[in-house]
UniProtKB/TrEMBL annotation:
Organism the protein comes from: Friedmanniomyces simplex
Residue ranges constituting the Phosphatidylinositol-specific phospholipase C X domain according to the UniProt record: 58-199
A single GO BP: lipid metabolic process
Lineage: superkingdom: Eukaryota
Name of the protein this chain belongs to: Phosphatidylinositol-specific phospholipase C X domain-containing protein
Length: 378
């Protein structure tokens, strides 16, 4: 199914540790509203899926592309606190335990070792170290499935092997944990394993992982990748404005980009079509210097707090009802700005109305049985 000719520009207006009313922007496509501070104490519902084992409740026959999957952008950029390098606060283990199932790994090859990088910054962690954490975690979480996108983010340095060969060597250390097929898997095929999304080139790699090497850099509109093996993946990854944008303007426009693809993913009945939606952005120019955390969580603009992408996304989800497929949602600092954002994304995989009705029926049956037992006792 093709993308609609017109993409709405919309956003939700909500700040760090705040709750806002539903919002969308511009013309006939929506309106912007104000927000109201609330407590920063996290609330946990007893019926919320557990972050560590939320896939256990899902059917084996479900295509992975039919799910809403919380993810992180530049997943390894938690080791460097420089504002324009850091995109995460949780390490990989923390991300796994919180419910993150998609990992965006940016790599560089130095001295024949695959290291984690963020552009020119070397993060001090190797790919093998991160994969070992994932392997150990999957051993005790066999119901879960991970999606890992590996990108060559910089040219190789002082290395005698091809980048693709170095990646293959890393994966070959635990082949039982990987699915390197180039088709869309079901959840049953994926439990306890990692699906590779390949964002690097190399000799004879056309059948190795799902090929996303047609990725576009910072396009203003979503794009769709069509692989040779009938996989379709539509992505929104507009991470930097073309011109100078103030914090309110940038967040509003980015919010519209994200909301637009969320709506499209939920409306598309082709559950084999993948969606990937990046909420991340930054700006660095002569006029504005806006780091990833400020976009994700929010910041002050003048004397007014401007709500970031995470609380806006949480408010968007609050306005949606029932089971809805949003695809992969890759975020910066997903634990910040809205306490239960990851849980809210996970919950969209379930029909909450049906679950509530089921609980009511179980309670009625329990009460009926108790009354019957009390009558017999009399």
């Amino acid at each position: 199914m093709g993308l609609p000719a017109l993409w709405r520009k919309a956003g939700n207006n909500q700040g760090q540790d705040r709750v806002a009313l539903p919002v969308f922007a511009e013309k006939a496509y929506g309106s912007v509203t104000t927000s109201h501070p609330t407590s920063t104490t996290a609330t946990r519902r007893d019926d919320a899926p557990l972050g560590e084992r939320w896939m256990a409740k899902l059917d084996d026959s479900t295509a992975v592309s039919a799910l809403t999957i919380p993810g992180t952008h530049d997943s390894a950029a938690y080791t460097n606190a420089w504002p324009f390098i850091q995109t995460q606060k949780m390490d990989v283990l923390g991300q796994l335990n919180s419910g993150i199932r998609y990992f965006d790994l940016r790599c560089g090859l130095r001295d024949d070792i695959v290291e984690m990088v963020h552009g020119s910054a070397v993060l001090g962690v190797t790919l093998s170290m991160l994969l070992d954490i994932m392997y150990l975690w999957l051993m005790s979480h066999s119901t879960e499935a991970l999606i890992v996108q590996i990108k060559q983010d910089r040219a190789s340095e002082r290395s005698s092997v091809h980048f693709a060969h170095a990646i293959w060597t890393c994966i070959a250390q635990a082949p039982i944990r990987w699915r390197t097929a180039n088709t869309t898997p079901t959840l049953g095929e994926m439990r306890g394993k990692i699906q590779l999304l390949r964002r690097f080139t190399g000799p004879t790699l056309h059948a190795y992982g799902i090929d996303v090497t047609q990725w576009q850099d910072n396009p203003s509109r979503p794009f769709t990748i069509y692989t040779w093996h009938a996989v379709q993946l539509t992505t929104q990854d507009h991470y930097r404005p073309a011109g100078a944008e103030s914090l309110p303007s940038l967040i509003t426009k980015k919010g519209g980009d994200v909301a637009e693809l969320l709506d499209h993913a939920a409306a598309n009945t082709d559950t084999g079509h993948w969606y990937m939606n990046f909420t991340s952005a930054y700006e660095f120019n002569l006029w504005y210097q806006l780091p990833p955390r400020e976009i994700a969580v929010g910041g002050y603009w003048g004397f007014r707090w401007e709500e970031g992408m995470n609380p806006r996304l949480r408010e968007y989800l609050r306005g949606q009802k029932g089971k809805r497929r949003y695809g992969i949602v890759a975020m910066d600092f997903p634990e910040s700005g809205a306490d239960d954002l990851i849980a809210a994304l996970i919950e969209s995989n379930h029909d909450r109305a049906s679950d509530d009705a089921g609980r009511v029926w179980r309670m009625l049956i329990a009460v009926t049985l108790l009354l019957a037992m009390a009558t017999l006792a009399i």
